[in-house]
Write a sequence for this structure.
């Protein structure tokens, strides 16, 4: 109902809507409307109320709440089911995993304005001041086996890089397996949590942390050399809700393409956008470090690393450092 | 304490142990001992009590309770942590997953005498009359990435086939990826449930269902042509607790070998024991059926299927039917 009131006010942006009109079209009492107006104000919406005239929306907060995300969202699945919204949360992936376990539908979305327990790959802490980043997790249920799951994060890398390019003009390159870089600095991290049997995925939680409106001082000192934000790159504030919609739409497009047509199309786009192919790299895996030439990506997403002795090493996961030669 | 009383009685098998002796060596009251004796009787132990003489163990039930499994178990990890024991449970894997989620140590074991909600691969129901089969799940925390997990079930296939051969003389062959067959009929099924991030496994639950003492009539009609038990194969009753120990010991051996030395050793043993290599097969995957010649197993456990048109197809999971030519 709060959402319906907001929709009415938005439709009449720049003008007053009378209390009577709202009452009629939503079939609620004046008191109920007043309560919803108050709730919207608490959410950060600026609403002017004039006696005997009505209400006018004069300011929309920079928020990732369901109302803002859903406004004009053109997906069929992603974000069209439940949206769980938190102003602060330890980890959106954790919440999404719990919902996945409970059997929620594909496309269920968890969003947060701040993430306190967020981890990057290999368990690293990921910085996240409130209202500056975008933290979201999607519950997916692809009919694939666990070994194909690395492909989903590559699908997401392509999709999010595309959305970022279109929305902000920032040309984000992909660093294998799933970081997005702008001018060599991390602007988006993608992670996945998997619950599976041998033959099939039960659910998969795809998480993304996008550095949208951070200033350099918003990053912890140890990350300042390696992290950037879209605002730092462009000098312009990002409309986070709009970018979130673009990400959901782009991801749905590429995810569907992958499910229907296999990894081929995605892989060739991934390669085009890659900044960690055909160059010398150092790669840290769970228990070993490798150096070599990043020669190609295998059909299943594995990195093919040409070792100094000429042998080819297949790596399915790891942390890449681009070696400056 | 109940376990300590049982150990004392077992140590003195064939003789009476006086109440006084038990009291002294365990530092408990006569009343406490009586309670433990009663509890043991409820568990199926036959214990004679003679006034002024003492207690004697005259019969041990065919049970998979922690006391029976631990007696003489020579592992370091598997089954040495907590053992969760159920006379009937929907699924041991489910319980083990919950414990895994709670952070239990590696080697935590869940055993059941009967499994009502057991599923085989691809969600099939798996038959399990009480006290006849062996149903166990182990929580594992290998430092590997999700793509390597198929290897664990292959490690388990080799380990359990070996244990079954040693304990019962039944030469169980492995059908890719992880069924054990005796004379072409299923005698053991192995499954795995996985919880992982992109780069590493959080926990993995390895489950095994062994047909130990079932008679043909214990299987549902639709399984009688395709399932057998160790008792049917040998004509002899299996000591289920002893076989369980052998499985845990054998698995620990092969699992350690795999962690330390990689998949090579395991793979060559797997190939030797395979009954689904170098033969024509039909393979059902999640969304497709394949026919061809099962030519080899890849280093990561994938089946290499030679298609009629000469092409090689890599399959990471699926259900194999051996084609009779």
């Amino acid at each position: 109902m709060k959402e319906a009131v907001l929709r009415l006010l938005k439709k009449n942006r720049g003008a007053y809507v009378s209390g009577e009109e709202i009452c009629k079209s939503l079939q609620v009492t004046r008191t109920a409307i007043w309560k919803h107006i108050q709730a919207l104000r608490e959410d950060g919406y600026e609403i002017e109320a004039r006696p005997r005239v009505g209400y006018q929306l004069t300011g929309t907060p920079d928020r990732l709440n369901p109302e803002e995300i859903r406004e004009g969202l053109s997906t069929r699945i992603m974000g069209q089911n439940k949206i769980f919204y938190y102003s602060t949360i330890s980890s959106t992936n954790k919440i999404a995993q719990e919902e996945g376990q409970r059997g929620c539908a594909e496309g269920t979305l968890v969003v947060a304005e701040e993430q306190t327990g967020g981890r990057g790959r290999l368990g690293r802490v990921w910085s996240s001041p409130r209202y500056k980043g975008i933290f979201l997790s999607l519950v997916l249920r692809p009919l694939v086996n666990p070994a194909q799951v690395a492909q989903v994060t590559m699908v997401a890398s392509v999709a999010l890089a595309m959305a970022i390019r279109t929305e902000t003009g920032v040309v984000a390159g992909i660093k294998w397996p799933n970081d997005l870089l702008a001018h060599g600095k991390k602007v988006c991290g993608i992670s996945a949590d998997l619950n599976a049997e041998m033959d099939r995925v039960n659910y998969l939680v795809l998480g993304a942390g996008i550095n949208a409106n951070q200033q350099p001082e918003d990053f912890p000192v140890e990350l300042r050399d390696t992290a950037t934000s879209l605002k730092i790159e462009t000098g312009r504030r990002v409309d986070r809700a709009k970018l979130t919609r673009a990400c959901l739409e782009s991801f749905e497009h590429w995810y569907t393409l992958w499910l229907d047509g296999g990894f081929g199309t995605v892989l060739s786009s991934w390669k085009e956008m890659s900044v960690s192919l055909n160059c010398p790299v150092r790669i840290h895996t769970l228990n070993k470090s490798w150096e070599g030439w990043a020669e190609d990506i295998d059909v299943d997403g594995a990195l093919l690393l040409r070792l100094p002795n000429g042998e080819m090493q297949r790596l399915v996961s790891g942390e890449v450092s681009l070696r400056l030669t």
